[in-house]
Amino acid sequence: MHCSISINESACTQKTLTDQAIPLFFNPAAGRGRTGRRVASLSAILKANGIAHTPVASRAPGHIETLVLDAINDGHRRLLVAGGDGSVHEAVNGILRSGCEVEFGVIPTGTGNDFAKASSIPLFWEDAATLLADRISSGAPGRQIDAGRCNDRYFANSAGIGFDAKVSHMARSIRLPMGKLVYLLAVLRGLWDGIATPHVTLSFGDKCFDGELTLASFSNGPWVGGMFHIAPMAHNDDGLLDLVYAKAVTRRRIMSLLPKIMQGTHIGEPEVYWSPIKKCELVADAPIPSHLDGEIQPLQSHFRIEVLSGALRLL
């Protein structure tokens, strides 16, 4: 495993557009449809602040990744993304797949907006758009932050294996206009449905856990699901991921831990373990669910996770 992104310099220097409108990628469905309703106002804020841009809507899951990669191949080296953590996830995968150095800005219009929280981006989209326009106009350089990689995919904020992946899947199926509370409802539904505790081997540094596992979270930022302070010590510019994992626990125990996880006071509980890591490997006896930035991944039994220090440049 490697902890850096190799850049194909010849491919990245063939075409670089510096005087063209900046692509503004957005998922109209993000934030339960709020992004689609707000994009005109958002665009007006950017235009009023002198930022030439072109709104580009995605049409299906995964489309932003393709659009971003195409824009980079066309020479764009500065991109904007309006949406939630899923939109950021797709954009980051497009950027890192390209191998080019690209600056990107994020305007949070999603449900959880965990990446925005981790990156000190204003959570009110009008404020975020205004601040972003000011940074672009003033020529402020992008700041380097870390990314993560799980097997052949990248993540911006977190990777999760086990129960939290199940919760992410359930949250996506809930259509009620509940905001971040959708994740709490998904937890309760997940508990009702039952808790799987697969047998895994988790290796990191000189340590190894071998046994039944409820969940493992690999955090680049401190929040998941908008309201769960899963890794309170995490920073996305420290060159580390924060591993938080829990041994097999009962429904009742999860209910007692839930308020602590929301407050970030669960670290140190008997079943909960935390460690800063650069890379690790998890092998399960059978394929198990996982998510990257809340996006559900195919069932897998072998996971290689690592931090990519300073791989991203955030406006």
Question: Outline of this structure?
Answer:
By secondary structure, this protein is α+β, with helices and mostly antiparallel strands. 32% of the residues lie in helices and 32% in strands. It has a 15-stranded mixed sheet that branches.
Please, could you describe this protein's structure?
Helix content is 32%, strand content 32%. It is an alpha+beta fold and 315 residues long. The protein has 2 domains: 9-141, Probable inorganic polyphosphate/atp-NAD kinase, domain 1 (Rossmann fold, 3-Layer(aba) Sandwich); 156-309, Tumour Suppressor Smad4. Strand 13 and strand 14 (295-296) form a beta hairpin. Helix 3 packs parallel to helix 4 (85-98) and helix 7 (163-173) crosses helix 8. The chain is globular and about 55 Å long. The two termini are 28 Å apart. Mean pLDDT is 87; it is low at 1-10.
